[in-house]
Amino acid sequence: MQFELDLQREEEDAHQTKQLLRKAMRLRVPVPPVHSHGGANSGHWYEGDQTGGWYLTVSGIREVRAEIRQEQKSRHDQRAHLVVWISAITGVIGAITGLVAVLQKHG
Predict the structure, then answer these.
(1) Model pTM?
(2) pLDDT tens, the chain, 107 aa long
(3) 55: which strand partners?
């Protein structure tokens, strides 16, 4: 029974790892390495006993999620900044259009 539970946990971890890595790659955010510079396990990944695959640990998930959130926030802030400029330009165009209409009516 423990084998089945471990296998189920690894399959869930595999699914979660795959989703996070796909999102991280799409956003081009860094993913923690499996091994540190010395060749030891970095602590962000573990090798499954049942499947032999490499999956993110809780700390690895936290790190990737933090990177994803930071990138999404940065992109949102950039879009918000752009919206302010577009609104300002739209307002100026509206004011100029109104001024031209008034000048044509009186002219």
Answers:
(1) 0.72
(2) 888 888 899 999 999 999 999 999 999 999 999 887 777 788 899 999 888 899 999 999 999 999 999 999 999 998 888 888 899 999 999 999 999 999 898 76
(3) 46
